[in-house]
Amino acid sequence: MGNKCIEENKLLKRRIKELEDRLREAEGKLYNNERTFKSVIDLSPNAVYMCRGKKMIYANRQAVKIANTKNPQDIVDKKVGFRIVNHPHYEDEVKKRVELLLKEETRVPYLEQRLVKDDGSVIYGEVAGLSFLEEGEMNVITILRETTERKLLEEELKENNEFYSNLIESLPDAVFFTASREITFTNAEGVRLLGAKHKEELIGKEVLDFVHPTYREEYLFKTDNRIFKKNQVKLSEGKLIKLDGTNIDVDIKSIHLLWKDQNIGVVIVRDVTEKKRVETVLRQSECIHRKFIDLLPIGASIHDGDKIEFINRKAAELLGASNEKDVIGKSLLNYVHPDYIEASKNILNNVGKLLGEDPPFFYNKILREDGKVIDIETWAVTFYDNKKLKTISVFRDVTDLLKVEELKIRAEENIRLLEEERELNKLRTEFFANLSHELKTPLNVILGSQQLLSLYLKDNKLLSECHGKVDKHLKILRQNCNRLLRLINNLIDITKIDSGFFEINMKSHDIINVIEEITLSVAEYIESNDIKLIFDTEVEEKKMCCDADKIERIILNLLSNAIKFTEPGGTINVNIYDKKDKLVISIKDTGIGIPEDKLCIIFDRFRQVDDLFTRTHEGSGIGLALVKSLVEMHGGTISVYSEVGEGSEFIIKLPINQTCGEPSREYRAKRLDGEKVERIQVEFADIYSL
Predict the structure, then answer these.
(1) 1-36 pLDDT, tens per residue?
(2) CATH class in words for 416-502
(3) CATH code at 504-683
(4) Which UniProt keywords are present, listed alphabetically (predicted)?
(5) Which residues of 517-546 are buried (b: 16+ CB within 10 A; e: fewer)?
(6) Do 171-276 and 296-397 share a fold?
């Protein structure tokens, strides 16, 4: 009995040991399976979480990665929702799923939702769940399959589809998609092009229904699968029939694509009916214009640089060519006279700069093919032809016209010369009438005085009773002799000036002193006529080169005129201004003035403001012309400013030149004698009163 119990105990121990060995073996296998299972889960591309209650107890590598960390312990043992929470949009749905999982052991299928990470970024994922009881507590396994990249790609594709759909809809051309020669899609322009109101009217329709019979065979050939080449763009023209039966001309661009083993046609159609109409009108217009240009009586050409591209019939005729084609391609310069080639090159180079401006015209000479030279008048204008600058030239033969113009110019010149001759004859007639008057008046006075003196001598009363009368008549004789001498001197001097034999003696003089002395020497006579004389100068002395005698003659002549035309009570001003490089002399009076229309002739020879029969003062019309010549011989200028009733001002401007010699003693002595007095008596001979 005891032995039996011992054997049973030993057997029991062996079985217990076997059970323990089997248990250890099972535990080892279970551990290995657990490790394998964990490895598989860690390598899963999906995030796997395991929670017990509201506490995270496991997270695989992908879950750790999504949580923006590297260590699983950063999220394990933390509260559910640490680092990642459900998007508010999905909170209600997720809450129901969680309640179901915690209530009983169950499975919930994948649900697409958005999740918000702790950095605020949003991820997309599909989430599934599994719950089971262990040790009396509910465990939940959550699997997150992240679909952010796919979702973003889908959204991008959606946006692209929307963009290209809008783009196709907004295209100005009609777009059709076809499959098996049926319309599967069209844009708004396609609806309008074919005269439909809605896309549904066109979808599913046979393409051939809209192709004009003339072009159907061509369409069938181009869409034949046997000759179909993928991605080959085809261009063509054609006619389509709208729903209302109207025909329209179109340009077609098509391409065939393979999509899901199906031949898809993409056809872009543009309505060119108006374009065709305009092209037809343009062709007709071009034909009309060509005929019109050929009928023009002037030559017309188009050339690129100097290369002729087109000429009309008249241009060929002007160039001496038998046919327009014989000239095309040749250089314009081949037909230009050698003397005008350089000028023509310059015109061709510069005409391009006148784009948009009025075309210039110019004369040229053409050397025809038969050797004949003709004159032409040319207009040229530029234009762009396919972005290349070209020139249109029109020209006409003006050989005969130029001859007529030359004859016309000669005729006008002859008429002008005839008018000048008439004017000169008139001036000559007036001058000789004036001269005869000027000569006759003092001669009559001289003759009358001589007759009276003869009577006095005959009666032997010369030295006694008639002494005063004799003296008076002798003065009259001398004054009128001076008048004749002044007239003759002026005539001789003006003749010398014309022939170039008149000389001036340029020496260094104090011109202020010269002008002042000659002015003051006549002051007594001027004041005796109840005229006030004012002399003023900016400088007291100014040495310069001049002919003192001629300066005195100029001043006396101007003063004589001022006295002659200034009424008693008037004023004569003589002013001298030093302007550094020139001396300005002004002689101004308060006389009767000069009409504005006569100012331009007062310095002309033999011209006077009043004619012979209306003037109230003596004069030959030579004085001011002589003054102007003398001033100009000094290198100066003279001008006049006048107003009728207000007076006149003569202004002399003389250049200051100091490079000349001093006058000789004999010359100075001669000027100190009675010559100055005699010069005054001669210059004032026609205004002195006895």
Answers:
(1) 566 677 767 777 677 677 666 666 666 666 666 666
(2) mainly alpha
(3) 3.30.565.10
(4) ATP-binding, Coiled coil, Kinase, Nucleotide-binding, Phosphoprotein, Transferase, Two-component regulatory system
(5) ebbeebeebbeebebebeeebeeeebebbb
(6) yes
